[in-house]
Design brief:
Layout (H helix, E strand, L loop, with lengths): L6 H5 L3 E2 L2 E2 L3 H35 E9 L2 E5 L4 E6 L6 E2 L4 E7 L3 H19 L8 H27 L5 H22 L7 H22 L3 E5 L4 E6 L6 E2 L4 E6 L5 E6 L12 E5 L7 E5 L5 E4 L13 E9 L13 E8 L4
Antiparallel strand pairs: 1-2, 3-12, 3-17, 4-11, 5-7, 5-10, 6-9, 7-8, 9-11, 12-16, 13-14, 13-17, 14-16, 15-16
Amino acid sequence: MRVSFSETKNNDPEIKSGIKIPYAPGKRRISKLLWWLIMTVVFTPFIVLIWYVFVGWFFSSSPGVISMDSFAITAPEKVYVADIFVSKGSDVAQGDAAAKLVRQPSPELLNQIALMKAERDSIKSGLTSIPKNPQRSLSLIDQNIAFFKKEADMVRKLMEQGAATRAEVNTAESRLRSAMAERNAALFVRNDDTPERTMNLRIKYFDMSIKYLEELNESSFEMFFRKAGRIQSISAFPGQTLNPGDEILRVANPESAVIVAYVEPENFKEISLGRQVDVLLPGRSKAIKAVLEEMPTLSQNTPGGLNTRISTSPRSVKVYLTPKEPLLKEELVDGLPVKIKWGIRSFF
């Protein structure tokens, strides 16, 4: 075999057969960049997966949420909503007005007014003679007593909820006493009472009661907050008709905010009274401190969406942690997911 070398071909590698090829080195660099880019895209998910497995294996953590006590303001009777004075997320103080409600005309109230008007008109038409059936008036008075007693109980409940005043309670109790006095007067008519005087007194009593019930029908009242807090949700809207017990709005107490941690069985040994842990909240680069002030007493399934590890047991121990640092206003969200860091996992 005969081998020969040519110095002209070895002097410049970018020239081939007398033609300059300037793109060859650049092409090799671009190919290398594309190669490393492809390798990065392919192996990045594996690197991230290995990192999370490594962190989860050597560092203990548990999911959790922010939890706050809350109470609902409900409709005390059948009403429709005239106005709502607050908005979702606003802070309210004790005694602030929550909503204005208007009583709906109930069939019982309308029936009572109709019976009293019929009885009053009957007495007016019989002023020239003693009523032939006095027991009918007594029966209606008994109905009035039962109705006014029910109304007085309702107003007392409204006052306990902050929707009625002491003056309104006194007025309702006064109506009840008047009805009972009228019944006693009907039972013990004095000998010197003339039929006309007795019947006029009854007409006056019925006029007074009818006026009271008609004013009560479709009257409005306001609901007030018994405690300070933050409006968590508003279920009703102006113009909506509500039945007794329907929720109008719900108020959360920011001062009661605690962190509820769901500790997996493998991290149960991390639980100890007085243990201080780091809690990482969404949007924060630095964790806050929280302390375990009471031992857990409840085990339950971890709420859906909080368990991020496939191999973790679905059961967990419910632990309450008290934050030692104030939470920001935007972080006071009931159910806000957080992460509790217990530190390096102990293998012994």
